[in-house]
Amino acid sequence: MALRLGQILRGARWNYLLVEDLGNKSSSSSVFKAKILLQAPTPTPPTGQWSLTFHFMAVIKTTSDQNGLDMLKREHECYQNPAVRSSWHLRALYDAINVHGPSAARASYCLASEWMDCTLKDLSSEAHRRSRVLHKSISKAVLEALHVLKSQHLVHKYIENDNILISGIHGQCPTVRLGDLGLVHSEGFDNHPVQPFAMRTPEVWSGKGCFHRSGMWAFAVTVSCSIAIVCVRTDKSSFSIGSRLVLLA
């Protein structure tokens, strides 16, 4: 069942009004921005993990592809782990919703998650890419997220700039989360695909599997590439990437 703008999805926690089509992440998956319709008589932000960043908006992901559906269900399963669910540094999951059409075959499965303003990939401003505050926030959040996964013997197999999520980018303390937890597996996972080519670690290349250190490597390459873009575009002298990385310390 295809979702449409103006449709209301009914979740266990809240209802969600689809207000903007954010486009397809693939030919078989769709992403929407949704307004949260609180079911309580008085609108009250939730407590706990989301209370400081709650904006009454959510992102809705759905797919008609079996592989994509398996990934959404794996993401939902990942959040059943209390350590994952309670982490400030992993994108919050609000609801898993089955949207039923006229027949069971046309049902859609959706995840409603925390709304974030942009991804690291979206940052094009040189001022943002040069920001010490932003890069420190990114480093702290992602490293803490990876530590949480390690504590549960889990690994994120596909760290890249598209799943490092940012809100409040103009503030003094940007909020950063790691997303796409459908890509989280048990440590040692070695089924294809594992990690983008540019971020792939030696142990993955050699077939030993993906581990905590693999995620650390992939994140280091991801953030280095982000910084390197500034060096290439704005620094005419031979300015090394390594000297830029000092800003993260």
UniProtKB/TrEMBL annotation:
Molecular function GO labels: ATP binding; protein kinase activity
Top-level division of the source organism's lineage: Eukaryota
Domain Protein kinase: 16-249
Record InterPro entries: Kinase-like_dom_sf, Prot_kinase_dom
Record-linked Pfam families: Pkinase (PF00069)
Gene3D superfamilies: Transferase(Phosphotransferase) domain 1
The protein's name in its UniProt record: Protein kinase domain-containing protein
